Amino acid sequence: MTDQIIHTTAVIARAARLSVAPMMEWTDRHCRFFHRQMSSRALLYTEMVTSPALVRGGALHLLKYSTVEHPVALQLGGSDPAELAEAARIGAEHGYAEINLNVGCPSDRVQNGAFGAILMRDPKLVAECCAAMIKASAVEVTVKCRIGVDDQTPSDVLPEFLARVAGAGVGRFTIHARKAWLQGLSPKENRDIPPLDYGLVQQMKGLFPALHLSLNGGITTLAQAQDALERGMDGVMIGRAAYHQPADILMEADHMIYGAPKVERTREDIVMEMLPYIDAHIAEGGKLGQVTRHMLGIFAGQPGARYWKRHLSENAHKHSSGSHTVVDAIEMMHAARDNLTA
What we know:
Elements: H1 2-15, E1 18-20, H2 29-38, E2 44-50, H3 51-55, E3 72-77, H4 81-93, E4 98-103, H5 108-112, H6 123-136, E5 140-149, H7 154-167, E6 172-180, H8 187-190, H9 198-207, E7 212-216, H10 222-230, E8 235-238, H11 240-244, H12 246-250, H13 253-256, H14 267-283, H15 288-292, H16 305-315, H17 323-341
Parallel strand pairs: 1-8, 2-3, 3-4, 4-5, 5-6, 6-7, 7-8
Helix pairs in contact: 4-6, 6-7, 14-17, 16-17
């Protein structure tokens, strides 16, 4: 078992050269399946699942995934060591390749549950939570955090945080290179307003060379990701850009980030490869829009893209919709392109 865990940890660490951030209401199983069609290597994350909901059984449906999604990690939110340990055990038993603890989300709802970014104030508790999770889980436990919160001085608190939590057995961290302001800024504002400090995160790699550190925050292109890797970071996590312009990030990732042979595929190819999945989802009682809402950005920046988005937005909710609706949207986009060049 130990050899298997070590092998899995090494494989996931390699995958974490590029990861798609866990994003609430976005990175569900349909989103992840779609993203996996564009990159076979990037590390994918679930939405955050709270440990109370998971342990009490109300969130078990959120653990459903396709094995096609691997490597895929489960992100947990919580602050009770025993509860997080049980949630980690459940996640590992469901086959997730990694269990990640959220110490970065600044939303009021998360704060009221005493987890997320507010835990940056209590590295001792985070270490206790991680130690309990590691003991209960057969897969690697990791942490996603900020550089600090509120009036904390990041250059003081971040090294202390990393040292304390690493001492509990965590070897891999993803660091959002911004502070989180727990009062006065919305979650959206917390992603944009606090200044980025990439230099501090890079300094942490120098202080903790044995740790696997991934950079998160403000990265919108593969060129930026490559630059961070060349500067010594072990990995890069991309969030909104990977969701809103998935093809720009993920279709070239395997070649540019992992050195895999370049594969010539079009965005239309990706969409057509999704049709059997869509048919199966609808046959099980699902709705087209549950899948296609994640696909709206695949043609971002391409001629006629708004016709693709409009047709799906206006028709995916209809009872009669299906994979043919997706094909119709492509045809409308092509017709618009033809009119532009006529």
